[in-house]
TrEMBL record:
SUPFAM superfamilies: PLP-dependent transferases (SSF53383). InterPro entries: Orn/lys/arg_de-COase (IPR011193), Orn/Lys/Arg_deCO2ase_major_dom (IPR000310), PyrdxlP-dep_Trfase (IPR015424), PyrdxlP-dep_Trfase_small (IPR015422). Residues 1-42 form the Orn/Lys/Arg decarboxylases family 1 pyridoxal-P attachment site domain. PANTHER family: CONSTITUTIVE ORNITHINE DECARBOXYLASE, INDUCIBLE ORNITHINE DECARBOXYLASE. GO terms for biological process: amino acid metabolic process. This is Orn/Lys/Arg decarboxylases family 1 pyridoxal-P attachment site domain-containing protein. One of its GO terms (cellular component) is cytosol. It comes from the Bacteria. Pfam families: OKR_DC_1. GO terms for molecular function: ornithine decarboxylase activity; pyridoxal phosphate binding.
Amino acid sequence: YEAFGVPATILANFLRENGVVPEKCDLNSILFLLTPAEDMAKLQQLVALLVRFEKLLESDAPLAEVL
């Protein structure tokens, strides 16, 4: 994925399996709608999952392990 990045659908599926549902995603982009009603815990969960996904990506984890 070094040349073109990770497809957003893979990240979206990873997040869905961990309780975060993105509003929209396609091949190259993912969209999250954050409202003023979101609390800090939800934002921290999103950031923690993104960091976890990045670590899995950097460790070259198999897709079966990620999803």
